Every structure is written in C-alpha cells, then in structure tokens.
Amino acid sequence: MTVTLDLEASTSDAPTRRTLSNLSLAVAKCKKIVVVTGAGISCSCGIPDFRSSNGLYALVKEQYPDVVMKGRDLFDASLFRDPTSAAVFYTFISQLKKSIDVASPSPTHRFIKTLDSKKKLLRSYTQNIDGLEERAGLIGTASQEAKSHGKGKAKIKMKEVRNVQLHGDIHRVRCTFCSADFPCTQDYLDSFLTGTPPDCPECAARSSARVARSARALKVGTLRPAIVLYDEPHPLGDDIGTIHSADIARKPDMLIIMGTSLKVHGFKKLVKDFARAVHESAPSPAASAASPLKKNAKSFAGKVIFVNKTAPGSEWDNIIDYHVVGETDRWVEKVIDDWKKARPADWEVQKTLVATGESSTTGTFHVAKEITNTIGLKSKGAKRKNDRKRENVPAAEDEDEVFDITLPLPSPPPSPSKRPRSRCHYTDVEMSPSKKSREVVLREPVHFEERGLLFGNATNASTKPGATLEDVFDLGPNVAAKPKTTSKKSAKAKAPKAQVEVLLESRTTKKATLSS
Ligand SMILES: [Zn+2]
C-alpha cells in the first residue's frame, strides 16, 4: 500500500514530518540509488509552455497556418512520410531547442548530480530530451564522452554514462541515411527553423570523394533531431538494455521516481523492473530488529519513493511505497537540509592539492580549492576506489573509510568557444583552439524492440484547463534564464582529467540518526 505524504503538511503534521525526515535519512544512507525522471523535473527550469496560446505551438501555427497537427502527431514517427508535417516538426523542434538552450538545470537536476558526487547514484534514467542533466554534470547516453570508437559501430561506455536518455537528446542530430550523429549547431538549427533538414556532412564527404575520382555520386542523407519519436526504436536501444540489466543485477537499494505520471508503456516496465529489484534488496525485518539503533534508517532502505504533484494510478499500489505530494524541487531541498543536519560529516569542506592542466607538463601543483561537494566512502583502498570512479559501487560496511574527493563541475562558460566538453573540473582553464577537435561519428543503427518509450505526461506541470493528456509532453516547459552556447558539444576540450582523490585517515562518523 502506498503511503501518501503531503509536503505542504510537513510543517503542521508531526507524523508526516517524521516520515519525511526518515525518508531523507534513508536517501543519505542508501548507496545504490536509481533515479527515474520525467518532464516534471524540468518545469521549474523556465521552458515556456508550448501548449499555451503564446507558446511554441502558436509560433509554428503562424508559419504553417493551413496545417492541422495535434500534439501527438508532432512527435509520431509517421510524420516523416509527409514533407509538410516533417517541415512542421523541424520548425517546432528548432523553436523548442532555442527555449531549452536558455534554460538552466533545476535543484532537482543538481540533486541527482549531488547523489552522484556522493557515490550514491547507481544511475539516472530520464524521459526528458532537454539534456539538463548533462548541464548539471551528469554524462548522458547521447554524450560524445560516453561513446567508444573502435571498429564497426560505436558502443556506449557504460561506466561513463550517469544518465540514460530514454528518448534521445534535442541537442544532437543524426543522419536519416547513414546514422552518423553530430551536435546540433546553429547552422542546422537555422535550417530546421525554415522547415528544411540539412544535408549530412558525412554522406556528402563520401559522395564528393567518389565524384573526385570520377565515380558515381552517392546518396546524401539529411539530418534530423536525435530524439526518439512515438513508435520508433531507440538507436541506442541495445546499449540501454544492457545498462538496464546490469543495474538490476547490481541490486539497487532505493528507487526515486520524480516528475512523471508513469503512463508510457515501455517506461512503466522499466520502473517496475527497478522497483522489484529494490524491494528484493530490502533488509529483512529481523535484520532491522537486530540493530535497534539503525532501525529507522534500515526500515526505509529498499523502498520506492514517488515524488509528483499527482497520485500514481492504482496499479502502483504494491509498487510505490511512498508518494510525496509536491514539487520535486521542494522535496530535494528538504532532503538535502535533513541530510546536512543528520550527517554533517558528509558535507565537510575538505582542502586538497589540485593538479592543473599546466602542472602536468611543468610539474607544479596549484594549491587547494575548497571542496564541499564530497563524501566519505568506505573502501579498502585507492585501487578499488579507482575502479569505481564513474560507477558508484559501494564497498562493504566495515571496511576502512576512504574519502573520495572530486571537484564540482564548473558552471557553463559564457561562450561556445570556452565551453569544455570533457569531464573537466576546472573553471580556470581556457581552451585554445588547438586543443579542440571536432569529432565525427559514424554509427550503424541498432535495433530496439521496445516501442512507445517516448513522452510521458508532465503531471507536475500546471496543466492548462482544456489541455488533454496528449497535449502534455515530456519535454518540460522553459523560459529564458541566461544566454547559452549553441554548439556546446562541437568542441572537444582536451583538458586534463581533474579528478583528485585524497585518502584520509579512517574515521568513524556514526551520527545519531534523525529518528524522533
Ligand atoms: Zn549520412
């Protein structure tokens, strides 16, 4: 049975307050958390509501007054059969990307990043295509950093991927013919805005090379936004399936579902698989009783938490343990507050030596940055900890404690030329043009049977009166916050890896639990 907890009532109602605090403590204590998100987590990021009369849809209608396309038609794979509906789609996506480009990650995105920095995130899975997780510092499946290039098709480097983008990424485009994928540059965006798909540079280069040696020209494909439409297989479906299975096998100890109405078939299945794995990992009541001091936190381990404004359907009664009613941003802020109070040691500011890019050639070290976003982690030693650098594999309870310190990611720099693409943690290293390279990836399509993954419903969005569920997309609304880069993924910064790990003396930080 699902326990409903109203965030608003937490100030006045003592039992609700206690349970919410215990949930926060459980988050702080769990070590293999799977986070699953939908459009609700991007609502506060300021994406304009494209369903409203002033929204993006109205702009598209202005450009194509004679075309009638309903919400779902705009995202159905069948739109490519008709040149006009394809043109509307390109224009719409171009408008949507522009609004996403000026949005910033929400506290909820940053919370997921915090879980990762503190070695508690097993993996994040999202239905969203806005790429805001990556802007918060979580490498996504669409990221170039997640791809390994050997012979044949590109594979995903599972350990690098912290956020699985179930419906693709609006910031990338791919060729409809050869499947090569590229960052969505301003030129491509301008072309899409007029309803015209740009030619694939990869196909074009191959064709002109043949023409140059007097051979027959080849077909040149066009580029499309690299998002997954209704009734369309995910190009990375096989890799995503592998990651999903691996995460299930790792026995996640908590599932947090945020900002989704859980209505899309393929997505529901993924959530149910994780929920089952989490419940199977729950400690037995006997184990909790044996350790009365830890009882509160322990009894909250192995739970499924759903944070959303609207309730889940009755099919979730035996799957979701707690429904936190409210905004995801408010809940994550409460969790962090409770966590800081209950386990201040997790938030201690550490000082450490920091190696910079220049130092790797000159042999000098720069001093100490203050690092707050760090965490104690138990492990036998540096070697094993290194193995877990990307994936968060916690070690057994009673091993020596090791602090793994990573610098926080810089906020996005003001211009595309200064934007580092790599996992560079330095804010003070600017890239020279010679340190950048453009990468072109050729990828063969892979097939994924799971259909209809796309677009759950943004139930955390304030649904306009009269809007049907079909009108509610999983894109998350958006409004301008700051100007941002356009071709953020085009430049690969060759900055040094900046992960610094410092081993501290073993220390005991057994804090009193927050039970009350
Ligand atoms: Zn191509």
From TrEMBL:
Gene3D superfamilies: SIR2/SIRT2 'Small Domain, TPP-binding domain
PROSITE patterns in the record: SIRTUIN
GO cellular component, one term: mitochondrion
Keyword Zinc annotated: yes
Binding site for Zn(2+): C175, C178, C200, C203
Active site per database record: H167
Main location: mitochondrion
Compositionally biased residues, Basic residues: 485-495
Region (Disordered): 379-424, 480-499
Protein name: Deacetylase sirtuin-type domain-containing protein
UniProt entry tagged with the keyword Lyase: no
Deacetylase sirtuin-type domain mapped to chain residues: 13-348
Entry keywords, A to Z: Metal-binding, Mitochondrion, NAD, Transferase, Zinc
Protein family (similarity comment): Belongs to the sirtuin family. Class I subfamily.
Recorded GO MF terms: histone deacetylase activity, NAD-dependent; metal ion binding; NAD+ binding
InterPro entries in the record: DHS-like_NAD/FAD-binding_dom, NAD-dep_sirtuin_deacylases, Sirtuin, Sirtuin_cat_small_dom_sf, Ssirtuin_cat_dom
Subcellular localization(s) per the UniProt record: Mitochondrion
